[in-house]
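Mods, move this if it's the wrong board.
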Amino acid sequence: MKLTANEFKVLRAIDMSEYGDSLLDAIWSWSIADNSDLNATSIGGIVTSLKRKGLVEGGGTHKDASIGMTLLGAIEYRSRNGGKSIKWLPDANGRYPGADRPDREEVQS
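Not the wrong board. Structure tokens:
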């Protein structure tokens, strides 16, 4: 699947957001601007493209909008990021690997 540099930046911003513990957790859409160098006016179009590809899903409007990766989005993101992410990716049963979650600063491999 083709991803533009800006699409990857949005996925990376979801991972970098202080909201949510899992790559599949929804974050506030304004957090994307806080965690990337993208301007707010371009983010909507990029998110729409990612939705069409099935990589993100979200709801709400304007300041109440939320966005999160789909499982396909999380897999694509990690495959392009050296298999790593800051946030956890649950297994097929929805469980998180390991008994304890790492600190936010630790990178999952």
